[in-house]
Amino acid sequence: MKRFYFFFTLFFTSVINAQISDFDATDFTIADNIAKLNEGEKLNNPPILSHKLTNKLSTDVEKFRAIFYWVCDNIKADDAQNTKIINNRRKFKNDSLAYVKWNRQYQKKALKELFINKKTTCTGYAYLIKELCFFANIECKIINGYGRTADGNVESLDLINHSWNAVKLGNKWYLCDAAWASGYLDSKSNFIKEYIDGYFLADPNLFAKNHIPIEKKWFLFDDTTQVKINMPPLVYGETFKLNINPITPSKMVVNCKEGDVLIFSYKNLDNKKHIPSLIEIIREKEIPYNIYNIQYNNELTTFKYKFNKKGNFDVHLKVENYIVATYIVKVEDN
After folding, report:
1. Terminus-to-terminus CA distance in the chain, angstroms?
2. Which Pfam families match (predicted)?
3. Which one of 155, 216, 219, 299 is separated from 333 by 20 to 30 angstroms, measured CA to CA?
């Protein structure tokens, strides 16, 4: 599948670590139903829409849930806009003033496309979330940075290309990404609606594997140095769908010698026991690895694999038939 990039604008504030597990006792059924009942509502009056989504809900987290779910359910990603913006980001990569000038001129067209046709890029998603939150008296920010996908920012951070949100609930900040939660673009650039709940109030440590903010405080955890120096394994929408957080190896590029045994581990953030596998894809055919010593310890799953052959290997971690992480393993002579 083809994941998408987006343009951005800048906002800043302070942070405290938090995630959706803070709201394990909260039932979002009513909030989700309100969002569904308002499906198809126009965007010509955001204050009224925000009121319709939130006025019957008593807590800020439920109100935010209704807003988030509605945006994910009603807004489509626009590949044409995205391509234009990414091309200009690359064109003006070394001339930020020229890009700002171009972007300022383009924003009017982008906002018109959002409010009339409900088609946008990631910044449009983040902007709409922020606007609807404003009218519900919920503090919300647009966060900008590097989105890591199979198409970019994989082994190094090359292009600032993505925007998402931070929302303040109580006295804590939480992270979410409505653009990637709403669906994806297929190989023909058609938008496929597929809601992924894992991007709602996401686990900060998992979120950081494919969301690298410009300002490090928006990681929402303290030890952020290694994220930018050593790129973590590449993760996917399916990773968030299953709430799987790959732990080891901690880097995407792993160097070892012939005969070395690598330990792979991941956390099941929903505490479910999944059966893991390790594969390589050669000419569109999956080649399974003979992993061993699979162990389950509460939310942590570990297993081992011995690399006996020299070479560079694209190794994929699979859980429940979904690829959830990708590593590049470079095996040298012993």
Report:
1. 37
2. Transglut_core
3. 155
Q: For residue range 208-226, list pLDDT tens digits in order.
A: 999 999 999 999 987 766 6
DSSP 57-68: --SHHHHHHHHH
- Cross-strand partners of 2: 185
pLDDT at residue 227, as a whole number: 67
Q: Cα torsion at 37, 110, 192, 268 (round to 10°)?
A: -80
User: Based on the domain organization, do 225 and 262 belong to the same domain?
Assistant: no
Written as one letter, the residue type at 117 is N
Asked whether residue 272 falls in the same domain as residue 223, the answer is no
What's the whole-number mean pLDDT along residues 198-213?
A: 96
Walk across the sheet containing 260-268 and list its strands.
244-248, 260-268, 300-307, 292-297
| pTM beyond cutoff 0.85 | yes
CA distance 96 to 93: 7
164 SS3 class:
strand
183 and 71 within one domain: yes
Task: Assign residue 264 the CATH number of its domain.
Answer: 2.60.40.10
**Structure token digits, residue 283:** 């000419």
Position 154, amino acid: V
